[in-house]
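Lab manual, section 2.4: Encoding a predicted structure.

Procedure: take the sequence of the chain (449 residues), apply the prediction step described in section 2.3, and record the output as structure tokens. A sample record is shown.
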Amino acid sequence: MTAARALAATLAAAALLGACAHSPGVIDEPAPTAVACPPAIASIARCLGGTDRQGAHYLIALPTNWSGVLVLHAHGGPTLGPPQPSRAVEDLTRWSITVRAGHAWAGSTFRQGGMAVRAAAEDTERLRLIFVQHVAQPKRTLLHGQSWGANIAAIGSEMYTAAANGGAAPYDAVLLTSGVIGGGTRSYDFRLDLRVIYQHLCGNHPRPDEPAYPLWQGLPADSKLTRAQLTARANECLGLDKPAAQRSAEQARRVAVITSTLRIPDTSIQGHLARATWDFQEIAQVRTGGANVFGNIGAMYRGSADDGALNAAVARYATDPAAVRRFGADTDPQGRTPVPVLSAHGIGDAVAFVELQSVFRDTVQRAGRLDGLVQVFTDDRDHSYWSDPIYVALMQALLQWVDKDEKPTPQTVAQRCAAAEAAFGPGCRVNASYRPAPLDARVTPRQRP
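Recorded output:
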């Protein structure tokens, strides 16, 4: 058994013991119990874990030399299927820099899988209350959302405010990294584009002898298609399992059509195709009651050798305006966060496009909160993690903003990052002059309800 699996098993057992210890009417949530910390922080922290009353597993790490700062982490995804304790272990392991920088870390698996943004925000706030009730009262609380978790943090910080919390702000500031923050109704259009262009080129998802379905559904509810089978189909058509030089001429042509029209590298095709399959299935079957929120009416794809033929051939789908509104009510930030927000993004991110930051900035500006937003960009292509000193600098900058009212700039974040390299190693790639283009420059525009 690996260390991560052993820790997950310990966390699951601790969750059961904690649930049994609950006394109705005394506290809202059972107290967490002691668990082993991941190896990366085992020597510098103690860890607690449990399961809240809604069924979300969680993990808390408190460093020996605690700064008094709590960082609540909203993880990326979304993860499909029932929550697993191992997810919290993986998140704490990846974000051990938070603890190594002296801050407490707390992360929830969320109580359910799928694209339930407000429910995940509720689970994150519930974890904050567990920490306050059973662990300690932090001096400062930062809400950190990574990837899809940035969507959760952006909306959660609008839901839980001082005004809604008896005058006491639950979060002092918000950190968004690699954020999918264009809102659910804008962030995933390109995945429908991938499905229709892929099907035109490959014709194997679904195959001709399989039941047809509208591609915005992802998959029919009763589909037995596995991820391995989808990977095999993509490799069959596109040769994604081969170096580019070893693909057939036809495979190379098909890949070129996808990468040029969607502006994504070939290395991200498989991941986005999988998301456009099972995430779309979950959205259609669970979130929208079978109504469509992803359309491509009016989208004119450009970049292939024959754009006219491509646009005439791909399937076209119209959205259901009522479904779009319902989906947006759960997944679209309104930009009304009343505390400082620092949003950082890798310029070359092929999972969550950097142009989503333009959508978020426009949203915040419409809400009249632009003074409370700072955006920082790095010369990174990776989506999941950049480098230790960058995250240390981002957290330092946010805390300085809160404590001393010193609003950061990309330049001051770059300076903090350079200073942090002495203790946390190299890796500063802040690009202080970069400004992202509008999302329509990256994702083909279309009619919207």
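Check your result against the sample. Residues 296 and 317 are 6 Å apart (CA to CA).
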